[in-house]
Amino acid sequence: MDPRHLLSRAHRLAATATPTRRRLLGITGPPGAGKSTLAAHLVAELAGRATLVPMDGFHLAEAELRRLGRADRKGAPDTFDPAGYAALLARLRSPEPDTAVYAPTFDRRIEEPVAGSIPVAPHVPLVVTEGNYLLLDSAPWSRIRGLLDEVWYVDLDAPERVRRLVDRHVRFGRPRAEAERFVLTSDEANARVVAATRDRADLVITFSPEAAPRPTEG
């Protein structure tokens, strides 16, 4: 299937929106698979007809993770606020005239969520949201799937995915040895949780270092 099919499919989804019913496209997959890159590309190509709202804006703050004793597992399902994420998605599904919705983002430079960072204008027909746990079927995450019109799962060869993750952590300030330890313990544990949700996707997009994306219907 031609990778341009992905953009055409996103366009078709946006075209089915109404003034009172926005469409929501979820992009999920394990850490480092390329879902953020794909989501950003789609939104850029849709040229004003879509806004990107990442799940990562619902990371718990570092101080709260320390209070809960979860700081060393940052990125695991219980280090997010899924109920808050679901509430935002529900609000985004039903836009109000002349009312923008503000979504949070996650700033990797400070490793903290930042509230009110992403304006979603009422006329935008499509929101693209990306994150690890969109297809998780345990509560409270299980609410998310029903709020999304489609969910695409992005996969990537494991060695390349791990290499990219380590490089990302190094780029944002971790020493390489610490980055490798974090990826192999925390990130890869989360990747196994995400991999178990693959079969629930509407579309599976497999990347490899050598090849273009290969979408298959889910």
Mind explaining what this structure looks like?
With about 220 residues, this protein is an alpha/beta fold. It has one domain: Rossmann fold. It is about 35% helix and about 20% strand. The chain has helices at about 5-15, 35-45, 60-70, 80-95, 160-170, 175-195, and strands at about 25-30, 50, 100-105, 110-120, 125-130, 150-155, 205, 215. The chain has a six-stranded mixed sheet with strand order 2-5-1-6-7-8. Strands 3-4 form a two-stranded antiparallel sheet. Helix 5 crosses helix 6 (about 175-195). The two termini are about 15 Å apart.
Name a few traits of the molecule.
alpha/beta, Rossmann fold, six-stranded mixed beta sheet
Brief summary of the model shown:
This protein has 218 residues and is α/β, with parallel strands linked by helices. Helix content is 35%, strand content 21%.
Number of strands: 8
Shape: globular
Radius of gyration, whole Å: 17 Å
Instruction: Give the DSSP E fraction (strand runs of 2 or more residues).
Output: 15-25%
Report the CATH architecture. 3-Layer(aba) Sandwich
> What letter string, H or E per element, gives the SSE order?
HEHEHHEEEEHHEE
Which strand order do you get reading across the main beta sheet?
A: 2-5-1-6-7-8
CATH superfamily: P-loop containing nucleotide triphosphate hydrolases
The helical percent reads: 25-40%
Output the structural class.
alpha/beta
What name does CATH use for the topology?
A: Rossmann fold
